[in-house]
Design goal:
Elements lengths: L1 H27 L7 H19 L3 H23 L4 H21 L1 H4 L12 E2 L2 E2 L5 H24 L1 H11 L1 H6 L4 H26 L10 H14 L4 H21 L7 H18 L12 H14 L1
Antiparallel strand pairs: 1-2
Length: 307
């Protein structure tokens, strides 16, 4: 029972990182992305491939995996982020399917459907973090949850974050004020992809097997639902949404009912939660915290007058 609870908390931490990073893209910048699982998979496979073939330390592979995912975010972002709404969602979905098919069919590099195994665990101060000792990974994952939350919160409190919110509220008005909307959207996309790659890297060393089936379209939809449920454009909301959806999906196993409840029951509960929320709380549990632009403009004018 304790091992199951530790496993749930570890995977929940990874989902929180994914939902926080997608919240930056979809919630704060207003870009409907359906390829977050692809960035997650790119981070996981980068760590797996380099770990098996080069033997590099996890602490070096971690930022490399994040950067590879971020670069892939730039590559998909530059040609597609001029699109909006449904068109952008379809373009990102196409990218996710390309990544999944590459992971499935490039046998010589990714191992094909069999995936990659034998990924080396992290070593910290001479101590190997054994995946069987889940407490080590619980601390590791939640340490990165805290870092992700803090960094993204600081980003959104900065001038860069205010520009992203301006793009979300009215892209034409933001552009007329001199904001390079394409550049800001690409950077936002790449930052979100970076943290998804970080989550993928941690996932790879924890399992420690990666297979392409673990990074499919439904995972992207699930992460997006976590953001929507908690409240788009709110860090606390993304955290709460991820917790509710993942814990609800694992509740039969936690309570010991998995042998008498069919797997479809989880999907029914998942759908029911979303339907109820969209009826009674369409803005999410916490809701979006809209920026008070009048207050920001007033503060700026006061600074100018004081000078």
């Amino acid at each position: 029972m304790l091992n199951l609870l530790l496993l749930v908390m570890i995977l929940l931490g990874l989902y929180i990182i994914l939902s926080l990073s997608l919240n930056l893209i979809a919630g704060y910048t207003g870009l409907l992305s359906l390829c977050h699982a692809a960035f997650y998979g790119i981070g996981a496979y980068t760590t797996a491939i380099l770990s098996v073939h080069t033997g590099l330390s996890f602490w070096l592979l971690l930022p490399i995996s994040g950067l590879v995912a971020a670069v892939s975010g730039v590559l998909i972002g530059l040609p597609t982020l001029r699109l909006k709404g449904d068109y952008l969602a379809i373009a990102t979905l196409g990218f996710a399917e390309i990544v999944r098919n590459v992971l499935t069919n490039w046998d010589s590099l990714t191992g094909g459907p069999r995936g990659i195994s034998g990924i080396k665990p992290p070593v910290l101060f001479g101590y190997t973090l054994d995946p069987l000792k889940k407490v080590n990974y619980l601390i590791l994952v939640w340490f990165f949850v805290a870092i992700t939350f803090f960094v993204l919160k600081r980003i959104m409190e900065s001038r860069f974050g205010r520009a992203l919110e301006a793009i979300r509220e009215d892209e034409i008005a933001a552009s007329s004020m001199g904001i390079n909307t394409t550049k800001y959207k690409v950077v936002s996309f790449s930052i979100g992809a970076f943290f998804a790659g970080i989550a993928g890297s941690i996932f790879a060393v924890f399992i420690p097997v990666v297979v392409p089936g673990g990074f499919d379209f439904m995972l992207s939809v699930t992460i997006l639902c976590m953001v929507v449920l908690g409240g788009m454009g709110n860090h606390i909301g993304a955290l709460i949404g991820a917790s509710i959806i993942y814990i609800a999906s694992m509740l039969p196993q936690i309570l010991g009912f998995s042998s008498i409840i069919s797997p479809q029951f989880n999907q029914i509960i998942f759908g029911l939660i979303l339907v109820i929320m969209m009826i009674y709380k369409p803005d999410g549990i916490v809701g979006r915290k809209k920026p008070d632009f009048e207050k920001l403009i007033g503060a700026s004018l006061k600074k100018e007058v004081s000078r």
